[in-house]
């Protein structure tokens, strides 16, 4: 006998009070979902366009620099430009190398608990804002395919850590100036900030907080995990800020590298 | 101070409508003060539930200008200019005026499997502060049921009430799941019968909580991650097999009597 059977039944269908309207809110509740939808739509359009460009993603020896766009790193396709190639390659893949890479960060962000909140509100209107009726007659949440796949978030988290490692290597290599030695340019700073933001976004993730220590029942019995959990928890509280900052900056980084690689702007040397 | 216009929904299960009251408002008053003055001077039959007037009993939950809030903790001078709308909580059946039938929550409370400590001599366990702190946040809950009311899973979909515990009880489940002495495994129950998967993390419960409990971040998401451990993570499954640990089914977890 289950608990559900042993207790009295929930009575449905009682008459509800209040007017039958979508909401009585008087504040500007539409602003937040509209802003979210605008930013996310812009990013999706830009990243799709950038992924299919398959050029201007690497600033190489010709410019005395070693900068690669995060959309294309690690460059493991069969058509990577010289100097951009990672240590291994999938030579039979002749399309844009970004298509091999972007699936992982996009999957990580798509299944991220914060982004779920944002796009369920902004795009699916489920609900568009608190105490505003959602736009659907029936609702099954994340209990069925395809949304039950949101539970794979931690695997995208693992993949994200691997990509962050590559982006960190890229940031270190950005200090290299082929033919000139070592130095710091604006591009170096951009790639370093990008890698730092992506690490902080990944490590502030709810799945990470759970995996490092949140899953235990007793902190006393697991002092090391408790210490990790204590470190991750304040970072987790900033997950929303880090999600936006890292998203916007990764887009900015691609734009910067693209402009330098195309010759539209110069990557100025700082020292 | 100037008069204020209050639009209060009046009615019962047979129907109702807004009634407008214009009444004086004094400095520092909260919505409940003004509602009480309306009761005292203009509408002695106006029904509203209240008790402590200090934000600790959770009785005076209502929707003020469309937002779920405690009437006793909503200052009049912090509301925008113009008339103030007060309606009963939308997710629960109406009894009369601002009073709703919240018994759905008590039914869900009965279904929470109790703490199940292992056999040990009396006084045989010392609870450590870091484990106390973790659950303490959840014990701040005053059961105002604003989180249950704002949750669109049942607010907009009445049919989900039969299989959805709601945010208030997810924090209760989380508190028990994170208790160092608990041996009950409620993950299957949460997934199959308490509707944890229905929550889509829109965080409205956290936004309306008058006790500022981080319901989503500290309770619901950790529970979802525990369900992932149990059902969606092959590495965790392999670890359980190697260590010969099994998880309880929903039925096994449910039979432990509630306190």
Question: Could you describe the 3D structure shown?
Answer:
The complex is a heterodimer of chains A (271) and B (259). With 271 residues, chain A is mostly helical. Chain A has ten helices and four strands, in the order H-H-E-E-H-H-H-H-E-E-H-H-H-H. In chain A, the strands form two sheets. In chain A, strands 1-2 form a two-stranded antiparallel sheet. Chain A has a two-stranded antiparallel sheet with strand order 3-4. The longest helix of chain A is centred in the first third of the chain and has 23 residues, at 31-53. Chain A is globular, with a radius of gyration of 23 Å. Chain B is of the alpha+beta class. In chain B, a hairpin with a 2-residue loop joins strand 1 (3-12) and strand 2 (15-24). Chain B folds into two domains: 3-100, Ubiquitin-like (UB roll) (Roll); 103-254, Alpha-helical ferredoxin (Fumarate Reductase Iron-sulfur Protein, Chain B, domain 2), CATH 1.10.1060. The mean pLDDT of chain B is 92. Chains A and B meet through helix 1, helix 5, helix 8 and helix 9 of A and strand 1, strand 2, helix 2, helix 3 and helix 5 of B.
Order of helices and strands of chain B: EEHEEEEEHHHHHHHHHH
For this structure, the CATH topology of the largest domain in chain B is Fumarate Reductase Iron-sulfur Protein, Chain B, domain 2
CATH top-level class of the largest domain in chain B: Mainly Alpha
Rounded mean pLDDT of chain B is 92
> What's the count of strands of chain A?
4
- Largest beta sheet of chain B, briefly? 5 strands, mixed
Total domains of chain B: 2
Q: Give the rounded overall mean pLDDT of chain A.
A: 92
Structural class of the helices, strands and pairings of chain B? Answer: alpha+beta
Head-to-tail CA distance between termini of chain B:
50 Å
* Shape descriptor of chain B: elongated
Poorly predicted segments of chain A: 1-6
Question: Total strand count of chain B, please?
Answer: 7
Rg measurement of chain A, Å:
23 Å
Short description:
Chain A is an all-alpha fold. In chain A, 50% of the residues lie in helices and 3% in strands.
């Amino acid at each position: 006998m289950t608990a559900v059977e042993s207790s009295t039944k929930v009575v449905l269908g009682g008459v509800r009070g209040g007017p039958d309207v979508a909401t009585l809110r008087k504040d500007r509740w539409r602003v937040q979902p509209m802003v979210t939808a605008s930013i996310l739509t812009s990013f999706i359009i830009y990243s799709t366009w950038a992924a299919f460009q398959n050029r201007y993603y690497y600033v190489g020896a010709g410019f005395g620099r070693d900068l690669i766009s995060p959309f294309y790193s690690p460059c493991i396709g069969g058509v990577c430009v010289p100097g951009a190639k990672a240590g291994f390659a999938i030579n039979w893949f002749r399309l844009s190398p970004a298509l091999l890479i972007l699936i992982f960060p996009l999957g990580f962000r798509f299944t991220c608990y914060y982004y779920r909140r944002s796009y369920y509100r902004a795009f699916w209107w489920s609900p568009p804002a608190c105490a505003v009726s959602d736009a659907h007659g029936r609702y099954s949440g994340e209990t069925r395919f395809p949304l039950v796949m949101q539970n794979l978030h931690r695997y995208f988290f693992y993949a994200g850590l691997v990509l962050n490692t590559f982006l960190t290597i890229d940031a270190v290599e950005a200090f290299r100036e082929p033919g000139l030695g070592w130095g710091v340019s604006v591009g170096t700073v951009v790639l370093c900030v990008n890698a730092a933001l992506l690490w902080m976004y990944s490590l502030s993730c709810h799945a990470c907080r759970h995996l490092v220590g949140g899953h235990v029942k007793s902190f006393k019995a697991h002092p090391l995990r408790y210490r990790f959990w204590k470190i991750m928890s304040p970072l987790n509280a900033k997950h929303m800020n880090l999600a936006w900052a890292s998203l916007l900056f990764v887009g900015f980084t691609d734009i910067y590298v693209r402009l330098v690689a195309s010759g539209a702007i110069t990557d100025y040397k700082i020292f | 101070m100037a008069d204020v216009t209050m639009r209060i929904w009046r009615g019962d299960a047979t129907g109702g409508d807004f009634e407008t009251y214009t009444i004086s408002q004094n400095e520092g008053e909260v919505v409940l003060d003004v509602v009480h003055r309306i009761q005292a001077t203009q509408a002695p039959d106006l029904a509203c539930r209240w008790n402590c007037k200090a934000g600790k009993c959770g009785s005076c939950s209502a929707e003020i200008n469309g937002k779920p809030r405690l009437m006793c903790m909503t200052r009049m001078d912090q509301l925008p200019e113009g008339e103030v709308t007060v309606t009963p909580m939308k997710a629960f059946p109406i009894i009369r005026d601002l009073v709703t039938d919240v018994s759905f929550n008590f039914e869900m409370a009965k279904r929470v499997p109790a703490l199940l400590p292992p056999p040990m001599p009396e006084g045989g366990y010392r609870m450590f502060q870091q484990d106390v702190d973790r659950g303490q946040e959840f014990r701040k809950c005053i059961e105002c049921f604003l989180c249950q009311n704002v949750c669109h899973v049942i607010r907009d979909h009445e049919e989900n009430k039969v299989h959805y515990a709601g945010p208030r009880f997810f924090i209760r489940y989380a508190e028990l799941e994170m208790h160092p002495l608990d041996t009950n495994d409620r993950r299957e129950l949460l997934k199959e019968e308490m509707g944890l998967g229905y929550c889509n993390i829109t965080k409205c419960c956290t936004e309306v909580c008058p006790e500022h409990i981080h319901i989503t971040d500290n309770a619901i998401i950790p529970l979802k991650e525990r369900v992932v451990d149990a059902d969606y993570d092959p590495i965790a499954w392999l670890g359980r097999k190697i260590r010969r640990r099994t998880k309880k089914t929903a039925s096994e977890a449910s039979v432990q009597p509630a306190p």
